[in-house]
Amino acid sequence: KQEVTQIPAALSVPEGENLVLNCSFTDSAIYNLQWFRQDPGKGLTSLLLIQSSQREQTSGRLNASLDKSSGRSTLYIAASQPGDSATYLCAVGPSNNNDMRFGAGTRLTVKP
Amino acid sequence: ETGVTQTPRHLVMGMTNKKSLKCEQHLGHNAMYWYKQSAKKPLELMFVYNFKEQTENNSVPSRFSPECPNSSHLFLHLHTLQPEDSALYLCASSQGLSENTEAFFGQGTRLTVV
Questions:
Q1: Alpha carbon of A52: minimum distance to chain B alpha carbons (Å)
Q2: In Å, what is the CA distance from A19 to each residue of A63, A108, B19, B103?
Q3: Mean pLDDT over all residues of chain A?
Q4: What does the pLDDT look like over A76-88, one tens digit per residue?
């Protein structure tokens, strides 16, 4: 059974700092990995999708990497802003069914 | 706005009530999902529908009953719920199952069972 772990559970940084969020998974038989952002009490907003054949994806100040063999992904946020404060979730899409597995998330606070 | 709309946004119901959650997507996707998000726990997949057919049911109690009348609409019928069923219920949709499959979520329904 796929298990997804996100470290750290919470992170607080000053504005302008670059930061890295980590995601690890136990089963490398995946189609893709997706990073989401969730604001309190709201739904999930898709940030980046990395296909299993890809190593990284970039969108603006965000860069996500994927190392399938070691079961790891990182989300790099450059020049963080207070508006980046949210919970960041990674989800792994398995290659044999629709059961996308989520990590528990990293709660990020960027202080002005 | 993600293209997936959930109603209502908030719902308070008693344990003897019957209510329904609604999800609608106009993204042309053929797969729709219900997830449950409880406090301090990862999202849990409840049900998956692919082309209106249920393909996943993750041991969800029968007091939750899904319905998918067409590829654009998904319902979750609720009856005789328990207080521990209070959670954020999220609907998602995607186009098939492949490397390109990107899931889009609605804003969720915050359910409180009293």
A1: 7
A2: 11, 10, 43, 25
A3: 94
A4: 999 999 999 999 9
